[in-house]
Design goal:
With 83 residues, the chain is α+β, with helices and mostly antiparallel strands. It contains 2 helices and 2 strands, in the order E-E-H-H.
Length: 83
């Protein structure tokens, strides 16, 4: 059994306006799992970008800075830099 996943701009294909390409993979295969995960990640990314677009710029900047500070602190805690 095969499953068809549609995509746009896959490996240089479907670049023309409104064109499509189709990826056909075997159901349950590693390729199907990878494509389903990629679709899930793309949906998450689009949702995040939509949230960012709706957020006031000053609030977005504050949240980015808070995340940056937190990540730097986490790295300093877990990564030993050579002296």
């Amino acid at each position: 059994m095969f499953v068809v996943a549609t995509c746009t701009d896959g490996a240089g294909r479907a670049r023309a306006r409104d064109s499509e390409c189709f990826l056909i993979v075997e159901r349950g295969s590693t390729n199907e799992k990878r494509e389903l995960e990629n679709l899930r990640r793309e949906e998450l990314m689009m949702a995040a970008l939509s949230t960012f677009d709706q957020m006031p710029p000053d609030r977005l900047q504050r949240q980015i800075e808070q995340q940056r500070v937190g990540l730097v602190a986490l790295l300093r805690k877990h990564v030993q830099c050579p002296s």
